[in-house]
Design goal:
714 residues, mainly alpha, Leucine-rich Repeat Variant, 4 domains, two-stranded antiparallel sheet, 32 helices, 8 strands, 3% strand, globular, disordered N terminus, chaperone, Synembryn
Length: 714
């Protein structure tokens, strides 16, 4: 069942969860009926494989939005219907069942369970772990270590408190569910009574007695969950997380994008061993828990699970054929390094770049031609779906652990490591994936990583000798630069999520153009060709130049600065040339930021660019109309008649006085602020306007006339 199909999907989840025979599952576990447990859990997994449990607050907001829409359209007036009440009642009961089911299964997987039954239990926990309100037993040290051990991340033992059957534990769960049903019936009879709501909360707390609490609490008394459970009033799982900021909530109706695309094909993989499938299921649960709970992220750091994860990844990379678990190892590592910055630093210190570079090399099946040159076979098959998914995760992790290296001066060892990585990244830019969307995503993450690496290590991109069919500039191979330019053009045409998707490639091209003359010459040829047609504004049209110039006046400051910087560098940071190609109106933002509004022809003094002294030669077409080009708009304007034609000198003087008076009024009312450019090229408030004006701001025309008469008499 897909939650995107209709708006009633959430209700069906809440109502459908009531059909789960939780008591039957508990009885089967208690009696050791493995077949019964497996059958019931498989039914649950099949029914809710693609369902997600949503936050009640989100549903309430959705309901309010619908209500306001109905009122606005005068469709109906609001009344709390029985169906609305039933929806919330069903969710309360469904939440209680999910909480109890999670507690039971976490205890169950710590017992000596057979592989096939353990796998189906983990799959159920994976579905339940999408709901932040049932995470309490999964984020304890025992819960995390149990999952980590099943995932192969650690061999650390957990407490053996559940090694023997505990009939009291299961009996208490069953008794609490029965009492909750009785309470629900009473609540229906006394609906609207304030005491009924309080009783309902207390009864929900009674669902977890002391024996249950001892099972799901953490081993050491200093942990936060142990404190939460302490006291005569035993807080329920729901209450414990309701007031907590530890968890994130999946968006309503949104597919779990953390799932591998490969997983959408089916749950059973051919040739997958039982141990491998078990590890994969445990890894999926860990991914959900770490993503949804900041407390789990902290405990993962404290329990040093990253070390075990690194060892597992190193082993899988060195094997001849990677297992299907590797994707989830990479996904968990990405989540940990993205959500815990100290773990990102730790991974970098412990050789994470080398390990992940080797994983990248394995996915691409790299063959080396030279120290920093990979063999690029044009006839090679596209990158497979499975390999492309692993590649994306590796690139994201590498970005997490190297993003602070951009402005640092690497030592010789690090520089060699980064150049080795850049040589492989060049292959990522040039290779194609099975799906075009994956190709675009692969190039996007490659660009992000390249922008995070030290700039001096990117010269590897240009070190490949040119071939007869290669793109070239001044004798240098530009195939990689051409791929970057094509990628930027696609992003410009798409116009989707401009800041997120476009600023990295703009920054990368700007930095490389500033550092490499050949790159700048090649990109300028494609973006800023010599001017021939100046009948249109520079921002008009569908060329890369027009699109970039339009971005120079974008509402987002980062976007417009990135676009302007690239054009400015392509103009060798020459103000006159920059205005020539973009028009003064479009260029004003960057010039004001850099203090260049004075229009100096020289380059900015603190620029790091190494530019040649070659001049910008004008085309014959441009020279013929150069005097008719409006420097503000950047285009050749149609000649217009003189607006003062036919006016006498007295009329011209009166018009000038009227304009000055209007400017003074606007200035005194702070509607406009007259500005001027100082000697440094920066905008400053214009002083002396009132003193030099022919008419005062506060004067009336009658006063002016009177003064004029007095002057004549004198």
């Amino acid at each position: 069942m897909s939650l995107n199909d209709n708006s009633s999907a959430c209700v069906s989840v809440c109502a459908g969860i009531m059909d789960v025979d939780l008591e039957g599952i508990i009885h089967c576990i208690k009696e050791g009926d493995e077949s019964g447990v497996q059958t019931r859990l498989q039914e649950f997994n099949k029914e809710y494989a693609q369902c997600f449990f949503f936050d009640a607050e989100e549903r309430h907001r959705r309901k309010q939005r619908k209500l306001e829409e109905f009122r606005k359209n005068k469709v109906r007036e609001f009344n709390d219907s029985d169906s609305d009440c039933d929806e919330y009642d069903q969710e309360d009961r469904g939440l209680l069942l999910r909480q109890n089911l999670t507690v039971v299964l976490v205890r169950f997987i710590r017992t000596a369970v057979k592989c096939h039954l353990l796998r189906v239990s983990l799959r159920t926990l994976r579905i339940l772990s999408r709901d932040k309100k049932v995470l309490a037993p999964l984020v304890t040290d025992n819960g995390l270590l149990t999952l980590a051990k099943l995932a192969g991340l650690t061999t650390t033992g957990v407490s053996d408190e559940a090694s023997d059957p505990d009939s009291d534990f299961y009996d208490n769960i069953i008794a609490s569910l029965a009492e909750a049903k009785v309470l629900h019936c009473r609540t229906d009879e006394d609906e609207g009574d304030a005491e009924a709501e309080a009783d309902d909360q207390n009864q929900e707390c009674s669902a977890f007695d002391e024996d249950t609490v001892s099972d799901i609490s953490m081993a050491n008394s200093g942990d936060v969950d142990s404190i939460s459970w302490f006291g005569s009033h035993r807080t329920s799982i729901n209450e414990m997380h309701r007031g907590s900021m530890h968890h994130k909530v999946l968006e309503q109706g949104r597919k779990d994008r953390r799932e591998s695309k490969v997983e959408l094909v089916g749950e059973e993989e051919d040739g997958e061993s039982g141990e491998e499938a078990l590890r994969k299921e445990a890894m999926k649960v860990l991914c959900n828990v770490v993503y949804n709970s900041t407390w789990a992220q902290e405990r993962v750091s404290a329990l040093r699970l990253l070390c075990g994860l690194t060892e597992c990844l190193s082993s899988s990379v060195s094997s001849s054929s990677p297992s299907s678990v590797q994707f989830y190892e990479l996904r968990l590592m990405f989540l940990i390094t993205a959500l815990r910055p100290e773990l990102s630093t730790q991974l970098q210190r412990e050789g994470g770049v080398s390990i992940l570079t080797a994983a990248l090399e394995s996915c691409l099946e790299v063959r080396w031609k030279d120290q920093y040159e990979c063999v690029l076979d044009p006839a090679a098959n596209p990158i497979s779906l499975e390999a492309s998914q692993r590649l994306l995760e590796i690139l994201k992790i590498l970005f997490n652990i190297t993003h602070s290296s951009h402005r640092q001066e690497p030592n010789e060892e690090d520089a060699t490591l980064y150049r080795h990585l850049v040589a492989i990244l060049r292959l990522c830019l040039m290779r194609k994936c099975t799906l075009s969307d994956d190709t675009d995503e692969l190039q996007g993450h490659t660009v992000n990583l390249l922008s995070a690496l030290p700039l001096q290590c990117l010269d590897v991109l240009l070190m490949v000798p040119p071939q007869p069919d290669s793109e070239q500039s001044l004798g240098v191979n530009m195939d990689c630069v051409h791929a970057l330019l094509t990628f930027m053009e696609r992003r410009l045409e798409a116009g989707d999520k401009i800041k997120e998707k476009l600023t990295p490639i703009l920054n990368l091209l700007t930095e490389t153009c500033r550092a490499h003359r050949e790159t700048r010459h090649y990109i300028r040829t494609h973006i800023l060709p010599p001017l021939t047609d100046v009948s249109h504004r520079p921002e008009e049209g569908s060329t890369m130049k027009s699109r970039l110039i339009r971005l120079m006046t974008h509402l987002d400051t980062d976007v417009k600065h990135c676009a302007a910087d690239l054009i400015f560098v392509l103009c060798k940071e020459n103000v006159r040339r920059f205005v020539k190609y973009t028009g003064y109106g479009n260029a004003a933002g960057l010039l004001a930021t850099r203090g260049l509004l004075g229009g100096q022809g020289c380059r900015i003094s603190n620029s790091d660019g190494k530019y040649s002294s070659d001049s910008d030669s004008d085309t014959e077409e441009y020279r013929q109309v150069r005097d008719r080009i409006n420097p503000v708009t950047g285009r050749m304007e149609v000649e217009q008649s003189d607006p003062m034609e036919g006016m006498t000198e007295e009329e011209k003087e009166e018009e000038a006085k009227r304009l000055i008076m209007l400017f003074n009024k606007l200035s005194s009312g702070k509607i406009i602020q007259p500005m001027a450019v100082d000697s440094e090229g920066k905008l400053v408030p214009l002083s002396g306007l009132r003193d030099n004006s022919l008419t005062g701001v506060g004067r009336s025309e009658s006063e002016e006339d009177g003064e004029a008469e007095d002057g004549e008499k004198n």
